[in-house]
User: Fold this.
Amino acid sequence: MRHSASDCQTGLRLPKIHDPPLNASSHVMTPERGKIHALVAVLACAVAAGCAPTKPPVDQMAAASRALAAARQAGAEQLAATEFRAASSRLDQARAAERDQDYDVAAQLAAESQVDSELAQARARLAKARSEVERITRENEGMDRDLGAGATQEQQP
Assistant:
């Protein structure tokens, strides 16, 4: 028996490339199925990334601590007490969230603490500058009075 190129050894005829599929379900993947598979793959990656443990916000916590120390050194505890207390409270909350391994919340609170600390430091510097301006203004007024009194005495015979 002679076999043609389109026959296999079992005697079954092999489909040619240009032959239509044997049935509709023999398609490996329709364009719609390909889109669905791609979507499923993307969603699986997103879920896996979302469930992955977040790292502790070490850098943010350190930056917030440094900012609070700088505000304290600038005198913010007395000169910008409200802002300083807010910064300190947020840093305490960030530390508690970090202990609870809620790292996203800890990072957010640390960032808020850092901003509050910077605001407290700026307000403390502003208060010091205003105080210095007031001191110099009083000093100038005193010199003006002294100069005015001296000029009046010189005019009298």
